Amino acid sequence: MTLPVKQSIAHPQYNPFTVDNDIALLHLATPAKFSTYILPACLPSQNLAERMLHRNGTVTVVTGWGKDNETSHRYSSTLNFIEIPIIDNKECSRHMMNNLTQNMLCGGVLGQIKDACEGDSGGPMMTLFHDTWFLIGLVSWGEGCGQKDKLGIYTKVSSYLDWIDSVRQGWDKV
User: Fold this and answer.
1) Which GO terms describe its biological process (predicted)?
2) Structural domain tally of the chain?
3) Which residues contact 135 (CB under 8 A, 6 or more apart)?
């Protein structure tokens, strides 16, 4: 399924060297019709995200159509998903060569091959809280993919709620 995009807006402070502010919004030409693969997810308030959803060990679901591993030459024809816990950024930093910022979340299981990969970038990291799915992260970067001693890094969506709201308000005026 292809969804025509009317406009895309990347975060104005995106830094390609640190991969900080790795977020963009897509304004669809027509509303998406919900289906098995297209469902809404709620954006948590900053308070809910920081107090409850970003806790170390919170189980998340990451989905994507990317490669199964870093040596694969093709993208998946089926939607893949993994269940991984949030890992505290301080703990995560011990296993990563690149620095994390306060706008990033870390997830994965050391010793297991559970990771997003090429083609999954921008995909959702969600968690279920009180029977509601919340979008808490976006697949951003990693050091390889599916490495047993590495974790995945996700854009922390709650850091961008004001920016998301301001962009959407601009779209509503058009």
Assistant:
1) blood coagulation; proteolysis
2) 1
3) 41, 42, 43, 44, 124, 125, 126, 157
